Amino acid sequence: MDLYQHFRQEEYPFIDQVLSWRDEVTTRYQRKVIDFLHPREQKIFEMIIGNDEELQLAFFGGWESAERRRAILAPFYEEIMESSFEVELLQATFPQKFVSIEHRDVLGAFLSAGIKRKKMGDIVIHNDTIQILVASDITTYLITNVTSIKKAGVTFERVPMIERLPSQDAWQSRTATCASLRLDVIIKEMYQMSRQQALNLIKKGLVKVNFQTIDQPSFMLEEEDLISIRGKGRSRITELQGRTKKDKIRITFEKLL
């Protein structure tokens, strides 16, 4: 059976990477620590490794509901602990009275400093405090090179994992019926807008699915896909519930409040 037929064409390079990691671990009998993966990549990884009795796959993202998580692929007999993931929790504070800092501001500052997204996990902001989980090999560089965010001076420092702040993400669950799983149709239902408005957003490059910009309205969505629209927030399909008597597809989805 062709493994690739179960996935989208744009996911083939990541599938090749997973197969390479599997071969490496199987051949060398050594664990492989993998950079942060987004939810779709985690799902693909799990689907490919499946029930391989010779291997074990584990994820860790700091927070229980973490979106981005590091992975470890290892021989089945190895013991995997939290420290095995080679991550550190960094924290900084900012003058909340004078500046408002959001997730995108923090991410933008890190990317501008030359830090790759795959080296960073979730970002949590609570009042005047920022926390982020990062790969330990970039910690010193990050602390040295990220000293301001949105013109506010910041100093990141290592803090114990036990001091992590509660995640502020709140998702609201809803249901809808759709004529199809086309991207434009789903956006219309999820965001309560016209089909034309959905088409315009897609054609302007403002829509991402699983962190990749999609400019094709006919792009077909699947369960657990994450949709983000610039200026309108994020949503994700949590369950496909089958078809109604009128042959429409019933879905359950969540929107980030």
Mean pLDDT: 93
Structural class: alpha+beta
Report how far the terminal alpha carbons are from each other: 42 Å
Strand content: 25-35%
Let me know the largest β-sheet: 6 strands, antiparallel
Work out the helix count. Answer: 6
- What low-confidence regions span 5 or more consecutive residues with pLDDT below 50? none
Spatial strand sequence of the major β-sheet: 10-15-14-13-11-12
Shape: globular
Helix % is 10-25%
Give the H and E element order: HEHEEEHEEHEEEEHHEEEEE
Strand segment tally: 15
Mind sketching the topology for me?
Layout: H1 12-28, E1 32-37, H2 39-49, E2 55-60, E3 69-75, E4 87-93, H3 103-112, E5 120-126, E6 129-135, H4 139-145, E7 148-149, E8 152-153, E9 157-159, E10 171-178, H5 183-190, H6 195-203, E11 207-209, E12 212-213, E13 226-229, E14 233-243, E15 249-256
Antiparallel strand pairs: 1-3, 2-3, 4-6, 4-9, 5-6, 7-8, 10-15, 11-12, 11-13, 13-14, 14-15
Can you characterise this structure?
The chain has 257 residues and is of the alpha+beta class. The chain contains six helices and 15 strands. The protein has a six-stranded antiparallel beta sheet with strand order 10-15-14-13-11-12. The chain has a four-stranded antiparallel beta sheet with strand order 5-6-4-9, covered by helices on one side. Strand 7 and strand 8 (152-153) form a beta hairpin. The mean pLDDT is 93.
